[in-house]
Amino acid sequence: MENSATYAIFDLVRNLRARGTPVIDLGGGEPAFDTPRHITDEAVTALYGGFTHYTPSRGTPELLSAIAGKLEEENGVAVDPTRDIVVTPSAKHALFISLLTVLDPGDELLVLTPGWVSYGAMARLAGARPVPVALSPADGFRITRERLESRVTGRTRALLVNTPNNPTGRALSSGEAAVIAAFAKDHDLFIVTDEIYEKILYDGTRHLSLAALPGCAERTLTVNGFSKAYAMTGWRLGWVSGPGRLVGEALKALQHTVGCASAFVQRGGATALLGPQDAVGRMTAEYASRRKLIIDGLNALPGILCAPPEGTFYAFADIVGTGAADSTAYAEWLLREAGVAVTPGSAFGAGGEGHVRLSFAASREDIEEALERMGSAMARWG
Question: Among 77, 106, 342, 357, whose CB has the most other CB atoms within 10 angstroms?
Answer without folding.
Answer: 357
